[in-house]
Specification:
There is one protein chain. By secondary structure, the protein is of the alpha/beta class. The chain has two domains: 192 residues, Glycogen Phosphorylase B (Rossmann fold, 3-Layer(aba) Sandwich), CATH 3.40.50.2000; 144 residues, 3-Layer(aba) Sandwich (Rossmann fold). 41% of the residues lie in helices and 17% in strands. It is built from 14 helices and 13 strands. The strands form two sheets. A seven-stranded parallel β-sheet has the order 3-2-1-4-5-6-7, with helices on both faces. A six-stranded parallel β-sheet has the order 10-9-8-11-12-13, sandwiched between helices. The longest helix has 17 residues. The protein is globular, with a radius of gyration of 20 Å.
């Protein structure tokens, strides 16, 4: 089986979708052995020509990258025009699996995509106009796919209910967790105990409510460390002596931060999955996350659940988690073992075969 696998989003710094792409691709390549050929491809910008190979470093593939100035506009034009077919650039393939940034035309073979969340449909005000337009067009195309992967059962239900995709064509393939996130290893020292949160600074990540909850704790010995790239929209006020803004960090530093944290808090208002929850658990750090939706599904009973809109609930959740630390660390480690890229790959190949039969 020859699989053409879209890696366009890897041209940007890795966040949730980028991590899913890289991890699932690595799992596919390992699972394929000599039986299947995995062909990562992307029409991309000068930035992508550098960033994509770096993101794929260590994975035994030869990416097919096509440099295009104004790559975003070209990807959208190609998707909407429906011509020329991807075979023109990639040769014959058995499966075309596209991601979030385009829906390339194809002449033959199985058509597959992955939906990571339906934020642009459920909460259009939480995304920028360009993102809303790009994803809305992709969602319309999803109904033409032979199979639509979702990263959680919660997202799978959304795909059926909100996009109208037949449930028989929707399959769940959970993400895994990278091996770098483990309990043993160096820990970051921020000069004392700290609560950690990892999120791009954007409205749905709910950092303004987290900051207010942290201030309720009134513990002079505790810091709040925030990791994540600059986002958009109204930004939370981080001008506080015990709040440490770290920005985007690489995986080595992120792993050290997870291990060094007393508590990890992920109070997002809406997620399709929430990979940082599993990364923190795998690192031996107890987790507080939002009740309901995908975050509760991912937590699987191994985290303290809170109301993300209630400042007092989040503050109480942090205190409860600290008090139950030993218990929650063990529960989190056990839960994290359920998420592996090998299983993501096994499930993906299984679904390809079922859909092609």
């Amino acid at each position: 089986m020859r699989v053409a696998f879209d890696v366009s989003p890897l041209s940007h710094p890795l966040a949730g979708i980028g991590r899913y792409l890289r991890g699932s691709l690595a799992g596919l390549v390992e699972a394929a052995g000599g039986e299947h050929e995995i062909v990562p491809f992307a029409p991309t910008s000068p930035q992508g020509m550098k960033a994509i190979p770096e993101a794929l470093d260590g994975i035994d593939v030869e990416p097919r990258l096509r440099f295009l100035p104004f790559a975003h506009a070209w990807r959208q034009a190609w998707s909407r025009a429906g011509w020329p077919p991807a075979e023109r650039f990639l040769g014959i393939f058995d499966v075309l699996h596209y991601s979030d940034w385009m829906f390339p035309p194809q002449g033959a073979g199985l058509r597959a995509t992955t939906v990571h969340d339906l934020v642009p449909v459920r909460f259009p005000g939480w995304v920028q106009g360009r993102t809303r337009s790009m994803h809305t067009a992709k969602y319309r195309d999803a109904s033409r796919c032979d199979v639509v992967f979702a990263n959680s059962h919660f997202t799978a239900r959304d795909v059926v209910e909100l996009l109208g995709v037949d449930a028989g064509r929707v399959r769940v393939a959970y993400p895994g967790v990278d091996a770098i996130f483990r309990p043993d290893g160096d820990r970051t020292d921020l000069g004392g105990q700290y609560v950690l949160s990892v999120a791009t600074l954007e409205p749905r990540k709910n950092l303004d409510v987290l900051v207010s909850a942290f201030k309720l704790l009134e513990r002079a010995d505790l810091r709040l460390a925030l990791v994540g790239a600059a986002g958009w929209g109204e930004q939370p006020s981080l001008d506080h002596p015990r709040i440490v803004r770290l920005g985007y960090v690489d995986d080595d530093e992120l792993a050290r931060l997870y291990r060094g944290a007393s508590v990890f808090v992920y109070p997002s208002r809406f997620e399709g999955f929430g990979i940082p929850i599993v990364e923190a658990m795998a690192s031996g750090t107890p987790v507080v996350t939002s009740r309901g939706g995908a975050t509760e599904e991912v937590a699987g009973g191994a985290a303290v659940l809170v109301d993300p809109l209630d400042v007092a609930s989040i503050a109480a959740g942090i205190e409860e988690t600290a008090a139950r630390r030993a218990e929650l660390v063990q529960a989190g480690l056990e839960r994290a073992r359920a998420f592996t890229w090998a299983e993501t790959a096994r499930r993906t190949v299984e679904v390809y075969r079922e859909a092609a039969a």
